[in-house]
Description:
This protein is mostly helical.
Amino acid sequence: xxxxxxxxxxxxxxIIPDGxxxxxxxxSIVLMYVRHMSLxxxxxxxxxxxxxxxxxxxxxxxxxxGGDIKLMFVSGIAxxxxxxxxxxxxxxxxxxxYSIFLLVSKKxxxxxxxxxxxxxxxxxxxxxxxxxxxxSWYLNLMM
Length: 143
């Protein structure tokens, strides 16, 4: 429900409220224990996507909002590094596809912005729900 609230608010305002990120933090801590994730895996999950997002934001001004970075940071606790990478990948694919559609249909120009949080939320939900199946499927493609 938190991810749904983030999606709706971010679509509407292009802001992810800190209160929802704090709620996600609490849920992520519980999920870390429920999923029997090691502390190291959670710590790596916190930083493996959020740090590159911060660096990109430094290099390209306003490439990500602070709420998006915080969302990936707190969800990394529950996801760990493997599922954080998967969630970000899914979010980037979805947001990229939608952005291409907007560019082709001339509804936005190259300097336009879209809310990225909803796509990250979808990626996080899919990674939490089906992450192991998706990763196993992908690895089996390579063999």
